[in-house]
Design a protein that fits this description.
The complex is a heterodimer of chains A (about 160) and B (about 325). Chain A has about 160 residues and is of the alpha/beta class. Chain A contains 5 helices and 4 strands, in the order βαβαβαβαα. The radius of gyration of chain A is 16 Å and the shape is globular. The two termini of chain A are about 30 Å apart. Chain B is of the alpha/beta class and about 325 residues long. Chain B is built from 13 helices and 9 strands. In chain B, a hairpin with a 2-residue loop joins strand 6 and strand 7. The chains are: A alpha/beta (about 160), B alpha/beta (about 325). Chains A and B meet through helix 2 and helix 3 of A and strand 8, helix 10, helix 11, helix 12 and helix 13 of B.
Chain lengths: ~160, ~325
């Protein structure tokens, strides 16, 4: 039997809503896919597309960006900034041959632990269907780029 | 000026490039005479005759300064990069191609097959017998070969250790002159070299900082191409007028030549200080000025940038975090 592919997902959460949603999911003993590694930011507006590109080039199969619902941002309107960056980033990723579905934007309020858990599980299943991204890994098959790949793999998770 | 009775040695090489960097060096006008007066030019294929075996015969570290322009597109480029690294004390990635891939790096959006099909089979090419290059060929006299073409273009520092970076497509001549002056001073013991890895011949801010156009509040309802606006306001920030200008992410050093001339910055000076991924920084800048909060409206405005990858990575794809499109990584027979 072949082993099931377990995607590596990096999740960015905002301090005021989605991180608390994740927290609530945990304290409420809700079950959700363990594939996501969460990184807390003060606000989804802090999300620099660099973070997403770094994650994808460093071995992540998908990236989940989460923030407060539109109109509910702790910093008034920064989640709209995240939305605009996300929409532009998806276009660039498509141009580079990366399935745009590998980056997802989820709004979750501090009360929506269940939503956070179900959206995470749904995303993991979607990425599982897409398969590994393996960015930079096909490179290993090419001569001369070996060294570069070993450098990429040294980046701490 | 001499060191131990001998002038220090200078070399310049072009790998995958257009030759514009060499022109920029010649554009330093009389400063080029200072190069000749202070250095012994040992290797510079565009300016003088020299053979690779002459370089191979040189003592390791015997060339003081090598300006290397062009990206690493094939095995010959890589061989020369490694050879010149071994022979040089100071190796400078000179120009946008060597630093971050530049226009040749945009080939990283295509597979090798697509590149060769375009080169050998399109309407403008007369190739009725469908000839393709063979890397090795047996002749009666023996086997001959040409350098292998790599699936992706690499930057110089993805192949060898680089001491300094000098971006620009091409680097501005006044910046080149200043760097030549500095190296001459260093040789005379009057100045010190910048720390290894430094970006030289540049400013430490963004093109916007050098741009004289007036900046107010940027709120964009529509991205437009500069040729669709006639004429653009010559005193107002181009981005404010909806023209995707790459100034906010681009390193200063060119004196904002393009915006002053009435064209948008296209980013040839590369990422500003502290920017890890040029395209990401530019996406941030563009996304911040869009005046919309509804996804449909934002998407409509983004439609005004018809080629997002070309817009944000025109000069930087090979040196970006993702380096190439997925299709370019695929190894295939061509």
């Amino acid at each position: 039997m072949t082993e099931q592919f377990e995607p590596t997902i990096i999740g960015f959460t905002c301090n005021w809503c989605s991180y608390r949603a994740a927290d609530l999911a945990g304290t409420s003993r809700m079950k959700y896919a363990p594939n996501v590694r969460l990184i807390r930011m003060m606000c989804s507006g802090r999300l620099d597309p660099t973070f997403v590109l770094r994650a994808l080039s460093g071995g992540a199969d998908g990236v989940m960006i989460t923030g407060c619902h539109p109109g509910e941002c702790h910093y008034i309107e920064q989640n709209y900034k995240a939305l605009r960056r996300f929409l532009l980033l998806r276009r660039v990723l498509t141009g580079l041959g990366i399935e745009p579905e590998r980056v997802k934007l989820v709004w979750a309020s501090a009360a929506e632990g269940a939503r956070f858990a179900s959206e995470t599980t749904a995303f993991v299943e979607e990425i599982r269907k897409l398969g590994p991204l393996n960015w930079g890994k096909p490179v290993a098959a090419l001569e001369n780029l070996q060294e570069e790949v070993s450098k990429l793999e040294e980046v701490p998770a | 000026m001499t060191v131990n009775g001998k002038k220090p040695k200078f070399a310049m090489y072009w790998a995958a490039s257009c030759g514009g960097c060499e022109i920029a060096v010649l554009n330093t006008h009389e400063k080029i005479l200072d190069v000749d007066a202070n250095f012994e030019v040992v290797f510079w294929p565009v300016a003088m005759d020299a053979k690779y075996k002459d370089v191979e015969a040189m003592e390791d570290g015997s060339i003081l300064l090598t300006l290397f322009n062009g990206g690493i597109r094939n095995a010959e480029n890589e061989h020369l990069a490694k050879l010149l690294r071994k022979k040089s004390k100071i190796l400078v990635a000179f120009g946008s191609c060597a630093c971050e891939g530049c226009i040749p790096g945009l080939a990283n959006l295509s597979s090798t097959k697509e590149i060769f099909d375009t080169y050998y089979e399109t309407v403008s090419t007369d190739n009725p017998n469908h000839f393709r290059p063979q890397y090795e060929y047996k002749m009666p006299e023996g086997e001959i070969s040409i350098p292998k073409f790599y699936p992706v273009l690499k930057t110089l520092d993805q192949v060898v250790d680089v001491d300094y970076y000098m971006p620009g497509c091409p680097p501005e001549s006044h910046q080149i002159a200043a760097v030549i002056d500095l190296v001459i001073k260093v040789v005379k013991g009057e100045a010190e070299l910048p720390p290894k890895g430094a970006v030289i011949g540049v400013g430490n801010s963004t093109v916007c900082d050098e741009c004289p156009r007036a900046r107010n509040v940027k709120l964009i309802k529509e991205f437009r191409r500069i040729q669709d606006i006639a004429p653009a306001d010559p005193t107002l920030c181009l981005l404010e007028q909806g023209i995707p200008c790459n100034g906010p992410a681009t390193r200063s050093g060119c004196n904002a030549r393009c915006p002053i001339a009435g064209a948008q910055c296209i980013g040839c000076y590369g990422p500003a200080e502290g920017v890890m991924d040029y395209g990401a920084r530019l996406m941030t800048a563009f996304a911040s000025v869009i005046d919309a909060i509804a996804p449909e409206e934002i998407d409509r405005i983004l439609d005004g940038i018809p080629d997002p990858v070309g817009q944000v990575y025109r000069f930087n794809l090979a040196g970006s975090l993702l380096k190439a499109a997925k299709s370019a990584w695929i190894k295939e027979k061509v």
